[in-house]
Amino acid sequence: MDKFVCLEGLVAPLDRANVDTDAIIPKQFLKSIQRSGFGPNLFDEWRYLDAGEPGKEDSLRRLNPAFVLNQPRYQGAQILLTRQNFGCGSSREHAPWALLDFGFRALIGESFADIFFNNCFKNGILPIVLPAAEIDALFVLVEATPGCRLVVDLEQQQLRCPDGRVLSFVVDSFRRECLLNGWDDIGLTLRHADLIRAFEDKRRIEQPWLFA
Amino acid sequence: MPQTLYEKLWQDHLVHQQADGTALIYIDRHLVHEVTSPQAFEGLKLAGRKPWRVSSIVATADHNTPTDHWDRGIEDPISRLQVETLDANIRAVGALAYFPFRDPRQGIVHVVGPESGATLPGMTVVCGDSHTSTHGAFACMAHGIGTSEVEHVLATQCLLQKQSKTMLLQVDGRLARGVTAKDLALAIIARIGTAGGTGHAIEFAGSTIRGLSMEGRMTLCNMAIEAGARLGLVAVDEVTIDYLRGRPFAPKGAQWEQAVAAWRGLHSDADARFDRVVEITAEDIRPQVTWGTSPEMVVPVDACVPDPANEADPVRREGMERALRYMGLSPRQPIREIRLDKIFIGSCTNSRIEDLRAAAAVVQGRKVASNIRLALVVPGSGLVKRQAEREGLDEIFLAAGFEWREPGCSMCLAMNADRLEAGERCASTSNRNFEGRQGAGGRTHLVSPEMAAAAAIAGHFCDVGELLGRKEKG
C-alpha cells in the first residue's frame, strides 16, 4: 500500500447523498480477476451516455457532458467532495480500487458507509468526515474557485483551503499510523501469530464443534 | 456487568486488543464466492503466505452462474474465467466444503451456509459480501468484508476491528396477514434511514422477532446492511436450535448437547444497555413497496409516491427528484397503479423454502398478467430447489406462467444473463433498488415474495392481504 502523508490536489464536487457502490463501479466490471484497471469505469453509468461492458474500448465511448467529472475544470482531480453515506451498498473493494485507479487519494464527505470506509484505508485512500456545515461551505468554495486545490495533511489532521481557512479532522489513530507508514495489515497481524495460535488451541478445546 | 449479545460475541472472539481499542478478532467461518476472492488468493500467493485454517472455508459459486441451460456451462467467457479461478483456488488451497457450479448443493452463499449447518450460533462469520449480515439470525457476529480483508482472514484467521456501537430494534406485536419479515425490514429502514445503523450492530428483539421463523430472521438480518449496519443479530431460542438439528455440519451426539448448552447463553442480558433503542409496533406495519433508488424510499402499498415539494432538506429533495426521474414516476401517483414488466422472486433476502411456499400460495390457481414479460423464480440453492419440487411448488409456478430456474444470485445484481433492460420495471424480492442494480436503466421496486407474486398476477402492485382474503371468500 502507498503511504499517505500530505497531499495537495484538485477537488471535484459530487453533490449528492447516498452514492452507492453500484454507482461507483457497476457489477459487470466485477468479473475481472485483477485489482487494477477499474478507473475508466468509475461511475460508468453517469460518466458515459452508452452502456459499458468489460472489454469495450472506453476511450471510444460517448461521455456525458453533464456529469461533473467530465467537466474540463475537474480533470486531474485527486480529492472528491461528497455528501452523506457515500459508498453505501455492497462490500466490493472494486469501488475504492476504481476511485484510486481514476486518481482519487482522498474523499471528503459528511459520512461514509462502514464497509466502504474500511476498504478505503486498506488501499491508501483517506476518507475524511466533516460536519454538514463545513461540507456545505466546501461545496460553495469549490464551485466559486476554478482550480480549487486543497491540502490534505494527515500528519496534522488538517485540511487547508486556498482562502486560508483551516479545517481539522480526526482519523482513528491506528488507521492513521498505517496510512502514514504504508503498513501492510497482514504483516502487522502476523506479529501476533503466537497469540492467535494460543487462542485457537483454547477455543478448539472449549468449543470443539467449531472446528469440525 | 450485564452485556448485550454483541458484546458477548466480541469478548468471546477477542485475541488481542491495542491501547487505542483496535482489536484482533478471531474468525470461525470464512464464506467464499467467486467475485471477491480471486485477488485475495492471488495476494496470498504473491506474498508467499499459506492459509491459516482451510477448514474454516466454505465456498460456492453464485454471483456469475447462469440460471438456465446448465448443460451449456457458463457461456460468458469472463464470468467463466472467474468461476474457474475459484475452482482452481479451492483446489489448490482446500476447504471444509466447496459447492461448485452445478453441484446439487450449490447456491447463494448466504443460503448455503445456514442450510448446511456451516453457520452455527456464536460464530464469527465473514465473507466478501455485504449480505453476510444474514447469518446474524443465528446469533453470529457476521458481516461483509472487502477483498483485502478476505486475504487478511485467509492469512491470519483474524480481522483488525473496532468495536461497534449497539442498537436495539425492539419489535412487539403481531404482523398482519400478508405482512412479512421483508416488510418489517423495509419499515425499519423507512424509520431509521439507510445510514441509521452506520457504526452500529443492530440486535432485533421482541415478541415479533421471537415469532419469526429462521427464514424470516435471515431476511431481516440480511437487510441490516441496507439500514447501514454491517451486522444484525437475533438471540438464540428453540426456533434456532430446531432449525440446526441434523444439519450436515451441525454437531452430533454429545457434542450437540454441549453446543446447545453454550448456545442458550447467546442473548443480551435483561438489563444490558444499548447505545440506541428503537421501538416498532408490528401492527402498524403494512406491506411495503419501494418507489425510489434507495431502500429508504419506501411506502406502504396503499400510499402514493411522495412529493419532493414537501421535503424541506434540499439535498434530500434533489435526491427524490432524481429518483423519480430515474424511476419514471410522478409525485402523488398511487403505488397500486404502478404497472410492471418483470417479476423476480429470489436473492439472498428471499429465496428460501418458506419464501417460495408463501409466493406459491398466492400464485396457486392463478395466471401471471399479460403485461408481465418475464416472471422468474430463482431458488436460493439446489437443496431449496429440490425441496420445492418435492412439494410441487415448481408445478404451481410453471402453471401460472412463471419460469422455474436453477439457483444463484441471478437478477438481484444481474451479473449473469438475468437482467432488466433500460426502462423495464420490476417487482423484486431482492435487497437493493439502486440505479442500474438489476441492469442499466432498469427500475426496481423492492417487495416481499407474497407481494411480488400478487403483483405478477395483477400486473400492478396490490395488497396481497386483500388478494388472499378475496381468495378465501371466493
From TrEMBL, chain A:
GO molecular function list: 3-isopropylmalate dehydratase activity
Enzyme class, UniProt record, top EC level: lyase
Record's keyword terms, sorted: Amino-acid biosynthesis, Branched-chain amino acid biosynthesis, Leucine biosynthesis, Lyase
CC annotations in GO: 3-isopropylmalate dehydratase complex
Keyword Methyltransferase included in the entry's annotation: no
EC number: 4.2.1.33
Source organism superkingdom: Bacteria
Annotated catalysed reactions: (2R,3S)-3-isopropylmalate = (2S)-2-isopropylmalate
Domain Aconitase A/isopropylmalate dehydratase small subunit swivel: residue ranges: 1-132
Biological processes annotated in GO: L-leucine biosynthetic process
Pathway where it operates: Amino-acid biosynthesis; L-leucine biosynthesis; L-leucine from 3-methyl-2-oxobutanoate: step 2/4
Matching Pfam families: Aconitase_C (PF00694)
Record text on subunit structure and interactions: Heterodimer of LeuC and LeuD.
Function: Catalyzes the isomerization between 2-isopropylmalate and 3-isopropylmalate, via the formation of 2-isopropylmaleate.
Stated family: Belongs to the LeuD family. LeuD type 1 subfamily.
Record's protein name: 3-isopropylmalate dehydratase small subunit
Organism encoding this protein: Candidatus Accumulibacter phosphatis
From TrEMBL, chain B:
Residues binding [4Fe-4S] cluster: 348, 409, 412
Listed InterPro entries: 3-IsopropMal_deHydase_lsu, Acnase/IPM_dHydase_lsu_aba_1/3, Acoase/IPM_deHydtase_lsu_aba, Aconitase_4Fe-4S_BS, Aconitase_4Fe-4S_dom, IPM_dehydratase_rel_enz, IPMI_cat
Domain Aconitase/3-isopropylmalate dehydratase large subunit alpha/beta/alpha: 7-459
Highest taxon listed in the record's lineage: Bacteria
UniProt pathway: Amino-acid biosynthesis; L-leucine biosynthesis; L-leucine from 3-methyl-2-oxobutanoate: step 2/4
Co-factor binding comment: Binds 1 [4Fe-4S] cluster per subunit.
Record keywords, A-Z: 4Fe-4S, Amino-acid biosynthesis, Branched-chain amino acid biosynthesis, Iron, Iron-sulfur, Leucine biosynthesis, Lyase, Metal-binding
Molecular function GO labels: 3-isopropylmalate dehydratase activity
Signal sequence interval, chain numbering: none
Enzyme category, top tier: lyase
Swiss-Prot/TrEMBL cofactor(s): [4Fe-4S] cluster
Reaction catalyzed: (2R,3S)-3-isopropylmalate = (2S)-2-isopropylmalate
Enzyme Commission designation: 4.2.1.33
Pfam families: Aconitase
The protein's role, per its UniProt record: Catalyzes the isomerization between 2-isopropylmalate and 3-isopropylmalate, via the formation of 2-isopropylmaleate.
HAMAP family linked to this entry: LeuC_type1
Family statement drawn from the similarity comment of this UniProt entry: Belongs to the aconitase/IPM isomerase family. LeuC type 1 subfamily.
Subunit relationships: Heterodimer of LeuC and LeuD.
Name recorded for this polypeptide: 3-isopropylmalate dehydratase large subunit
Organism per entry: Candidatus Accumulibacter contiguus
Taxon lineage: Bacteria, Pseudomonadati, Pseudomonadota, Betaproteobacteria, Candidatus Accumulibacter
